[in-house]
Amino acid sequence: MSTTAPKRASNLFVGSPIERLEDLRFLTGRGQYVDDLAVENMLHAAILRSSVAHGRILSIDSSAARARRGVHAVITAADIGTVPTIPLRHDPTPAIRRFEQPVIADGKVRYVGEPIAVVIAESAALAEDALEAIAVDIEALRVVADREFARKDDIILFETVGTNVPDTITAVRGKADDAAFNSAPYRRREHFSVQRHAAVPMEPRGLLAEWDDANARITVRGACKVPFTNRRALAQMMNLPEASVRMVEYDVGGGFGARGEFYPEDFLIPFAARLLGRPVKWTEDRRENLTALNHARDMECDLEIACARDGALIALRAHACTDIGAYVRTNGATAARNIAQVLAGPYRIPHVRVDVSLVITNKTPVGTYRGPGRFESDFCRERLFDMAAADLGVDRVEFRRRNLIREADMPYPLPKVQVLDIESECDSGDYQITLDRCLAEFKWAERAKLNGKLIDGRHHGIAVGCYLEGGGTGPRENVRLAVEADGSISLFVGSSSVGQGVETVFAQIAADALEVPMERINRVLHGSTDYVAQGFGSFSSRSIVMGGNAIGDAAQKLRTLIREAAAKRLQCQASDIVIDRGMAVGPAPARAAIALKEFAGLCADGTFASAKRTYSYGAHAAYVAVDAKTGHVELIDYVAVEDVGRIVNPLTLHGQCIGAVVQGLGGAFLEHFIYDENGQLLTGSFADYLMPTASDFPQIRAVALEDKPSPLNPMGAKGAGEGGIIPVGGVVANAVAAALGSLGVEPRDLPLSPPRLWQMIQAARATCAAR
Amino acid sequence: MPVKFEVNGKRVEVEVEPRLTLADCLRHKLRLTGTHVGCEHGVCGACTVLVDGAAVRSCLMLAVQAEGAKVVTVEGLSRDEGLTPLQASFRKHHALQCGFCTPGMITTAHALLSEEPNCDADRVREVLSGNLCRCTGYISIVEAVLDARTAYRRRGGGNGA
Amino acid sequence: MKLPPFDYACPTSVSEVVALLAAHDGEAKPLAGGQSLVPMLAFRVALPSLLVDLRKVAELRHIKITNEGIALGAMVRWREILDDARLRTAHPLLIAAVAHVAHYQIRNRGTVGGSMAHADPAAELPGIAVTCEAKIAVTGKAGARVIAAADFFQGPLTTALQSDEIITEIRLPLWPAKRRFGFQEFARRRGDFAMAAAALFYDEDGGKARNAHIGAIGVADRPLRLKAAEDAINGTSIDEAVIAKAEAAASASVDPADDIHASGAYRKALIGVMVERALRDAAGLKTT
Ligand SMILES: Cc1cc2nc3c(=O)[nH]c(=O)nc-3n(C[C@H](O)[C@H](O)[C@H](O)COP(=O)(O)OP(=O)(O)OC[C@H]3O[C@@H](n4cnc5c(N)ncnc54)[C@H](O)[C@@H]3O)c2cc1C
Ligand code: FES
Ligand code: FES
Asked: Is pLDDT larger for residue A496 or for residue A353?
C-alpha cells in the first residue's frame, strides 16, 4: 500500500463539514427504526426473565399462560430441544468457550434477566400479561455476587467446568520482572477499580422475524453492527444454509459496541417465527434492556510502575480482573484483552507485563462498550502517573512528555498478547503535538495558577492525560458501486450504521473518489446481508478505515470501467478519458463528453484488507471545582484533542468526540449498575441508572488534527469515534485529586459520586486531624 | 373504548384499550412512528409530543386522556419538502447522530421557543435536561436551539415550524 | 413495559369520583397528572382495577389567594404554579421549591394533589407543606375533612388518606411580605428527586429571627420539621455562629438510612449543609 494519497483538486467533499444526508429523515420523523415496522399477521413476543440470580430450574408450568386469550405459544428450553449456545465472535480460546451462553436458560439460571421463556401473543401487552401466568419453580443457589467470592471457587456457576475463572490474558513487552522493579530507583503500586456500567443506547433493541415456509428462508429485520457474522451464527443454530438467512438493517438508535451482537433473542425470535409460521416482533423494553444488553467495564487493577528519579518509566506490571458476569458473550473477553494490550498506553515503557483474569459472577454478562478496556486502563494508569509525578517532584505534564512514544520510535510495538498471539504496533504519530495543542487550547499555564486553590468555597483543580485509540480492525470490507439508469451512483457496503453517519461520510468518500458531485451518490445501502457478498460490520472504529478504503478501491475500478467504455465509443485510448463533474470527457480538441447515465449498469466491487490496526491518539484536559461539603464536582472546562490521520467530515467527527466525552463523563461521575448481595440489580430504571443530561456538562471543546496520516491505508485514515471516551475517567479523576491535593484525597475508584467523594474527604480530614 | 382527538390538524377516532398509552396509540394505531419510545417510564423524553400546545411525555398519558385534545407530533412540525428553521438548525449544528432522541428534542424545543423565544442557554439546558441523548453530548443540541430562536422571534413566537 | 389492564372513568365532580372509589373498595385509584402513577403501572407495581381520571373535575383546578393564605386545587399543575405571577410574591418559598420539581414536560402534567398523595419522601411539595404547616382538604365517602400536613405523611408513599378519599385542596397559611426564606436542594442531576433539601423561613422582629420553620426533605421516610435547628435561630440575629449552630443541629436531628444512592452519614451531613446554605440565602449572607 502506498502512503497518503495527495489531496487532489477535486477532493471537495472529504474534509468538508458536509451536513448529513440522514438528518433529513431523522428530523422530520421519517426515520425507520425496527419497532416502527408492522407487517400483516404479526405476532408479538415477550420474554420471561429470571428474577433469581443463581438457581436450578425445577419446573416450568406454562399451561395457564398458554390458555390465556390471545396467546399463541410459550417457548421454553424443552421446546427447543438441544439448546444452542452463542458462539464467541472474538478471542475464542478453548478455555473461554466453555462459558458460552445458552440461548435460553437450560436447567440453571445464572443472572437476573436471563431468558427462561418466550410468550408469543396477539399484542405486546397480552404477551406481557401472560408472563405472570407462567409458574417457574427455582431452587435458589448461593449467589456469587462479586469477584472476590467468585475467585474462591466455593460456589461454582458451571459445575462441569469447575472454576469461575475462564481464563487469564497476558500481554508482555520486555521483561517486567522482580529484577526490573527491585533495581528501579522509584516504584509505586496502587489498586484501582472501575464500576460496572454500559452502553445503554437510547433505542432499545428490536427484531422482526419472518419465516418463508415455501422457500425455507428466514428474514430478520433489526440487524446491525455485524449482520454477516450473526447470519452465520443463526444459520448454524437453525440448521439452515447461510443463504437462507437474510438480515436487514434499519435505522439504529445508537450502538456503542453493545447493540448488534448476537444475543439470546436473536435466536429466540426467529425460532418462534419458524415455529408458528407467522411474523414475530419483539421490542425490548427499558427494564429488560438494563439487564439484557451487555454490561461493561467492571474491573479492578493492581498496578505497579517503576521509574527513574527524573520520571522516565522503566517498567509497568499489573494484575487486573474483570467481572464478566454469568457467561462469556460474543465479545466478552475483548475488554480484558484490550486492558492487557493498552494498559501501558502511548508511553515508552520498556518492560511491561499485564495479566487480566476474567471472572464469572451472577450478573448480566458483559461485552464491549465504546473504548472497551481502554477507558478502564487509562483511568488506572493516568491516576498512578499523577501520584508518581507528585512523589518524584516531577511536573505532571513533564512526566508525560518525557515518556510519550516519539515519532522516531514508530512503528512502536504494543505488548504482545500471549495465547491469543496478538501483536500490534502504533503505526504513526507525534504524540507531543496533540499534548501541546491540548495544553494550549486549555490555557494550561494560566490555569495552573488556580490548581489546588480554594476559591469561593470550592477546590479548583486541573489535569491532562494522553491516550491511544486502536481502530481500523480488519480483516476486510467489501463495497460495490453501481451506475444507475439516471446516472446516479449507488453504493453498497458491508459496514453497518449505528447512528454514526456512515451514509454521509461514505457518500463524501465515493463522490471524491469518482470525481462526481455528491448528490450523484444517491443511495448508500449498508449493513444488510443482501447488498454485498460478505461484510464485516461496524465495530472497533473500523467503518471509515475499512469501508472508506474499500470505496476507494471500488471507485478506482469503476472509473477504469467507465473510461474503457467511453474510449470504445469515442474510439480513443482509455487513458485519454478524464472523468469530470460526472461526465466522461474525451481527448482534445473535441473533448466530447458522455453523461454517466450512458454507462448505466456498470458496477465494480472493491475491497480493502488489512491485518494491521491504526492508532489514533490524543490528549484531554479537565478543569474542575469540587464542593467539599457536598462532594459535587463541577466540570468547568474540558478540552479534547485528537489526531485521526484523515478527517473525512469535521462536523460528524466533532460530534463523535463530544458525544464520547460526555459518555465518558457519565461513566466517571454518574452511571453505575449496583447489585446487592443476592445478585439483584438495584439501579434497573432510568430513574436510578443516571446518564448525563443537557445540564450536567455544558462546557466541552474538541479539536481534531490530521497531521500524521496512517501509512497503512491509502486514505491515511485511522479509527475515530472511540477516542473521546478513553481518557475521560483518568483525566477528571486526576483533576479532582489535584483540586483536593491539600487534603490528600486520591480517588482510586470510579464513579466519583458525590457521596463517595464526600466520604473520601471526610476520611482525609480525619487522617489529617489524627496526625 | 373509542377516543376522538386531533393529530397534526387531522381529526382521528380510534378504538383503544384504556391501558394504551398515547405514545403507543400514535405509533401503532395511527402509524405516526416519528414519536419514539425510549423508556416507557417517563425519564428519557423521546416520546415528547405537544398536547394542546404543551410538551408532554406521551408514554405517561393514556390515549383515552387525549379525548378532545389537539396533539402535535414531530410529523406535524415538519414540512413535506425541506426543513423548518428549527430542523435546519439541528442539521447545521449536527445536533443529532442516531436520530432516536431527535423527535423528542424537536417537539420540546419547539414548545420552549414558541413560549420563550428569548430564552438563554441555561434555560435551554434546563428544559432539555428532561430529554436524554446518548450520542451527541448535548452541546450541539443546545447550540441548535439557541440558533433557532431568531426564527421564532420573527414569527412572533408560536409557529417557528 | 405495557400497562396492566384496568378500566377507566372520567367523572366531572368530586362526589362522583368518591362514589367510584368507594364502589371499588380500594381497587380503584385516582389519576391526576399520571407522572408517578403511570410509571408505577408500567413497572406493574400498581395494579388498580379502575383509574378515575380527575382531569374533568373543574372544582379541583383553582389557585386562590386570600388574606387567609393560598389554596391550591388538587389538580393544579406545576406549570401553573410557576406561571402564576401572583404566587411569586404570595409564596416565594413555594415557587423556589417547585422550580426544582422534575422536568419541563413533567411539570406540564404533574399536579400538587398527585404529589401530596404519592408522598415521595424526597419530593419538594410535601416538604413545603410540612414546613409551612399546610392543611390538606380531603373528601371521601364519609364527607370532607382537613388534615394537618404533619399528620398527613406517614411514611414512604403512605398518607393518612383512606382509599375512598381524594385530596381536594392544599392550603398554605398567609405569607407575610417581609418574611425571610431560603430553599436549597442537592440532587444528582437537574430534575432528579432530592438527595436532600432544606426549606426554611423566619420572620424578623427588631433584627432578631422568630417563628423559624425549617423543613428537611429526603432524609427520612417523610418530610420533617427540624425543631432543634429552628430553636438555634429563634431569637438570634443570624450570623456565622448561628448558622454553624443551625447546621449542626439540623444534622444532629436526623438519622437517615443508607440506600443505593448514598450512605445515611452523607445525607445527615448534607442536610446540615442545605440548611446552612438556605439560611445564608434567607439572611443574605455570602458563602464562605
Ligand atoms: C422523571 C421524573 C422526575 C420527577 N422528579 C420529581 C421531583 O424532582 N420532585 C417531585 O416532587 N416529583 C417529581 N416527579 C413526580 C412528579 O412531580 C409527579 O407529577 C407527582 O409526584 C405526582 O403527580 P401526578 O399529578 O402526576 O400524580 P399521579 O401520577 O396521577 O398520581 C400519583 C398518586 O397520587 C394519587 N392521586 C393523584 N391525585 C390525587 C388526589 N387528588 N387525591 C388522592 N390521590 C391522588 C394517584 O392515585 C397515585 O397514587 C418526577 C416524575 C418523573 C417521571
Ligand atoms: S418513553 Fe416517554 S419518557 Fe421515555
Ligand atoms: S442522537 Fe442518538 S440519542 Fe440523541
From this structure: A353
Q: Are residues A411 and A479 in the same domain?
A: no
Considering the domain architecture, whether residues A413 and A502 belong to the same structural domain is answered as: no
Report the residue of A678, A683, A693, A760 to disrupt the C interface, i.e. the one with the largest count of C CBs within 10 Å: A693
Question: Which residues fall within 8 angstroms of residue C149, CB to CB, at 6 or more apart?
Answer: C126, C129, C130, C132, C133, C134, C135, C136
Cα separation, A265 vs A293, whole angstroms:
11
For chain B, domain boundaries = 2-75, 85-154
Would an 8 Å CB–CB cutoff place B112 in contact with chain C?
Answer: yes
Q: Measured in angstroms, how far is the CA atom of residue A751 from the centroid of ligand 1?
A: 30
Q: Are residues A519 and A379 in the same domain?
A: no
Please report whether residue A511 resides in a domain.
yes
Q: Report the CATH number that the domain containing residue A559 is assigned in CATH.
A: 3.30.365.10
Taking an 8 Å cut-off on Cβ atoms, the answer to whether B65 and C3 are in contact is: no
Residue A490 reports pLDDT greater than 70:
yes
| Integer CA distances (angstroms), B33 to B5, B141, C230, in order | 18, 22, 55
Report how far residue A550's alpha carbon sits from residue A532's, in angstroms, rounded to the nearest whole number.
Answer: 12
Residues A481 and A403 in one domain: no
Considering its fold, how many domains does chain A have in total?
2
Distance from C-alpha of A46 to C-alpha of A254, rounded to nearest angstrom: 22
The yes-or-no verdict on residue A757 having pLDDT over 50 is yes
Give the Å distance between the CA of A542 and the centre of ligand 3.
Answer: 20
The CATH class of B2-75 is alpha beta
pLDDT in tens, A299-356: 999 999 999 999 999 999 999 999 999 999 999 999 999 999 999 999 999 999 999 9
Span B85-154 CATH architecture: Orthogonal Bundle (1.10)
Identify whether A287 is part of a domain: yes
Instruction: List helix spans (H) across C5-72.
Output: 14-23, 37-42
Give the dihedral of Cα atoms A507, A508, A511, A515; nearest 10 deg.
Answer: -170
Print the domain residue range for A519. Answer: 23-31+474-609
Cβ of A689: how many Cβ atoms within 10 Å?
Answer: 22
Question: Is position A286 within any domain?
Answer: yes
Coil, helix or strand at residue A249 = strand
> How do beta strands A295-307 and A313-323 pair?
antiparallel
In a domain, A446, yes or no: no
pLDDT (mean) for C192-213:
97
Query: How much is the pLDDT for B124?
Result: 98
- Rg (C-alpha) for chain C, rounded Å, is 19
d(C-alpha A378, C-alpha A465), whole Å = 8
ipTM given for this complex: 0.96
Question: Three cell numbers at A512?
Answer: 471524491
Domains recognised in chain C with CATH numbers:
7-53 (3.30.43.10), 59-173 (3.30.465.10), 180-283 (3.30.390.50)
CA–CA separation, C237 vs C205, rounded Å?
10
The pLDDT of residue A638 is above 80: yes
In chain B, the N- to C-terminal Cα span, in Å, equals 33
DSSP string, C218-267: SSSSS-EE-HHHHHHHTTS---HHHHHHHHHHHHHT--PPP-SS--HHHH
Name the percent of chain A lying above pLDDT 90: 85
Q: What is the pLDDT of residues A205-232, one digit of tens each?
A: 999 999 999 999 999 999 888 888 999 9
Give the model's pLDDT for residue A659. Answer: 97
Closest CA in chain B for residue A254 = B98
Q: Answer with the residue of higher pLDDT: A476 or C86.
A: C86
Q: With an 8 Å Cβ cutoff, are B138 and A29 in contact?
A: no
- Domain end call among A583, A609, A635: A609
Residue C286 has pLDDT above 90, yes or no: no
Q: Exposure string (b/e) for C26-57, b if CB count within 10 Å is 16 or more?
A: eebbbbbbbbbbbbbbbebebebebbbbbbbb
Query: For ligand 1, is residue C140 a contact (CB within 6 Å)?
Result: no
Cell match 462546557: residue?
Answer: A699
